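Good day; I would like, with your permission, to put a structural problem before you. What I wish to show you is a protein chain and, alongside it, a tokenised description of its three-dimensional fold. Please examine both parts with care and let me know of anything in them that strikes you as inconsistent. Thank you for your consideration; the sequence and its tokens are set out here:

***
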Amino acid sequence: MQNLKEYLIALIFLFSGCNTKTYTPAPVLFADTSTYLRIYEDPFQNITLNGSPIQLNSLEQRLISLKNNNGLVLYSNGQMNDDPPGNSKVIDLIKKYKLPITMFDDSSFSK
């Protein structure tokens, strides 16, 4: 009977951690800026790259470098739905260089 109690307690501890989700926001998870670029485009088409303002021509150079490193673009415009915006020059560049993209809903890249 004592062994059964110990066995059940061990199972409870084992399975109690199985449903626990840990959440790591993109800024922490994707800190390597040679492999991941966090691009935020506001409603006025102002662009920030990894939190710093950047011009479109400079961004293009970074995207070329990212392509050479087989990197990933993390993109947000703060109003994301399932499809990227159709009138974005940033999206046009991402398509031009055929870069993989993950879209986020907010400028902190956490959701």
Notes: The longest strand covers residues 36-41. Helices lie at 2-16, 26-29, 56-68, 89-96. The chain has a mean pLDDT of 78.
